């Protein structure tokens, strides 16, 4: 699916007309380029600011960034003439009162006009739930409100996201570093205004950041097209051997996708009662191990509840939530250290959506399933997380009538739909060893979709 409006306003008269008329001006996003794995992590120097309390913490962050061979500055005035910041990292882990946030927030405000297109702002703060002192909790939650508002103010494809560390998780924990790197990179192009919680120091920094999944085996359901096909490609690019699952009717396109990455195809309806066993058999035969499961297969059966048939309700629930629930009964016991279950939720499951009572029931169910599964799989060193896409350009959304489709596409801070690869990159990050400290979370990939809770 192409976004013709974005093409139109990206250059020439279309650009100036959109500006004059006050129309949305979506920017081309800085995305991963499969052909250039060596592309810089950020598009310019990185400024590290702190709350004045966490100076040791911001030293750790600055050292990490230097280790990644980035051009790191600590002083907003240090940027040379004509240059633009590639990223700003705000280390706010020491804030014990909202009063501590003013100085770094205003220092950031002073450099916003000099952010490069596709720049990143990342906050690092502590989890509010771990504190009891009202001023401390106010400061920690204050960061959330600040970040979400800031993300709505950024332009030119720049995004702002936050890392929330549980108390006791050090700044150089594998998942603190992994999340920082994900947010800075082009991999997080369509993740905006989000805070991701790092609950533990589990996980591992990969030997090679460009192939973190080397040696792992992943299963992706609904792999024949759309988001699933993109997930297959990105997991394979990151080093995984991949098994793609889809219904027999999609067999040809499934084979095509899986041949492309030299993976293997399994034609299977995931609502079959023995679906998980058949997947395990297939994986055991070919690869002898299973590390990552991506529950991606999904269907839409939209109707207002007043017009909803029993079939539409039941078919949707069967594929979108009952099948993953049943399969996890088998998979959860199979996954060992480094195991990952990643399930597709949706912003509809968070905010609700007219005509989607069945879909939102299932997708909110995915979030609940993930939350409950997390402590269970943690006992064997695995994690369970969800990804909630907003409007993504796929065959599924191409079927939405033109006017509501255009409205849905623009209703986010980046004023455009995401691409399947954007969701796939978030899934690949959650599948990676560096995400081992992220568990039970739902990461939205929605360009900061304006629908809230
Ligand atoms: P899609 O319709 O393009 O692809 C879904 C795939 O799942 C198809 O190949 C289909 O054959 C397969 N599938 C359906 N039922 C199956 C079954 N019973 N067994 C095995 N395979 C089955 O959808 P998409 O847009 O790529 O969405 C992928 C996932 O992301 C879904 O879970 C969807 O709900 C979720 N999602 C999508 C969007 C979006 O904007 N596209 C937004 C939020 C969430």
From TrEMBL:
Transmembrane segments: none annotated. PROSITE patterns: ADH_SHORT. Pfam families: adh_short_C2. Residues 216-395 form the Ketoreductase domain. SMART domains: PKS_KR. It comes from the Bacteria. InterPro entries: KR_dom, NAD(P)-bd_dom_sf, Sc_DH/Rdtase_CS, SDR, SDR_fam. PANTHER family: 3-OXOACYL-(ACYL-CARRIER-PROTEIN) REDUCTASE, 3-OXOACYL-[ACYL-CARRIER-PROTEIN] REDUCTASE FABG. Belongs to the short-chain dehydrogenases/reductases (SDR) family. This is 3-oxoacyl-ACP reductase. It comes from Georgenia wutianyii.
């Amino acid at each position: 699916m192409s976004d013709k409006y974005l093409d139109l306003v990206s250059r020439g008269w279309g650009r100036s007309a959109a500006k004059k008329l006050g129309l949305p001006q979506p920017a081309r996003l800085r995305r991963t380029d499969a052909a250039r794995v060596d592309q810089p992590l950020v598009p310019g120097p990185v400024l590290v600011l702190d709350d004045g309390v966490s100076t040791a913490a911001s030293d750790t962050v600055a050292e990490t960034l230097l280790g990644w061979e980035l051009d790191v500055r600590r002083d907003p005035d240090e940027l040379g003439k004509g240059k633009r910041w590639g990223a700003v990292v705000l280390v706010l882990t020491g804030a014990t009162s909202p009063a501590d946030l003013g100085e770094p927030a205003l220092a950031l405000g002073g450099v916003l006009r000099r952010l490069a297109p596709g720049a990143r702002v990342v906050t690092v703060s502590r989890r509010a739930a771990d504190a009891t002192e009202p001023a401390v909790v106010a400061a920690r939650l204050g960061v959330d409100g600040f970040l979400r508002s800031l993300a709505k103010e950024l332009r030119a494809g720049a995004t702002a996201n936050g890392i929330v560390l549980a108390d006791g998780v050090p700044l150089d924990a594998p998942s603190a570093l992994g999340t920082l790197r994900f947010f800075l990179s082009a991999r997080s192009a369509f993740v905006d205004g989000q805070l991701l919680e790092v609950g533990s120091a589990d996980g591992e920094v990969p030997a090679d950041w460009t192939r973190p999944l080397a040696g792992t085996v992943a299963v992706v359901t609904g792999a024949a097209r759309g988001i699933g096909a993109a997930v297959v490609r990105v997991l394979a690019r990151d080093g995984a051997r991949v098994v793609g699952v889809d219904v027999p009717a999609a067999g040809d396109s499934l084979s095509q996708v899986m041949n492309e990455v030299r993976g293997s195809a399994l034609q299977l309806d995931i609502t079959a009662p023995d679906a998980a066993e058949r997947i395990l058999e297939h994986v055991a035969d070919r690869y002898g191990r299973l590390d990552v499961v991506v529950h991606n297969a999904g269907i839409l059966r939209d109707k207002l509840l007043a017009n909803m048939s029993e079939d539409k309700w039941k078919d949707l629930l069967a594929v979108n939530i009952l099948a993953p629930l049943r399969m996890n009964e088998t998979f959860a016991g199979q996954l060992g250290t480094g195991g990952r279950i990643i399930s597709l939720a949706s912003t509809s499951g968070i905010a609700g959506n007219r005509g989607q009572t069945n879909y939102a029931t299932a997708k909110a169910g995915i979030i609940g399933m993930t939350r409950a599964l997390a402590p269970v799989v943690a006992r064997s060193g695995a994690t369970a997380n969800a990804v909630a896409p907003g409007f993504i350009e796929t065959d599924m959304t191409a079927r939405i009538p033109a006017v509501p489709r255009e409205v849905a596409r623009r209703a986010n801070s980046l004023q455009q739909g995401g691409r399947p690869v954007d969701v796939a990159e978030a899934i690949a990050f959650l599948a990676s060893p560096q995400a081992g400290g992220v568990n039970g979370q739902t990461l939205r990939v929605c360009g900061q979709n304006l629908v809230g809770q």
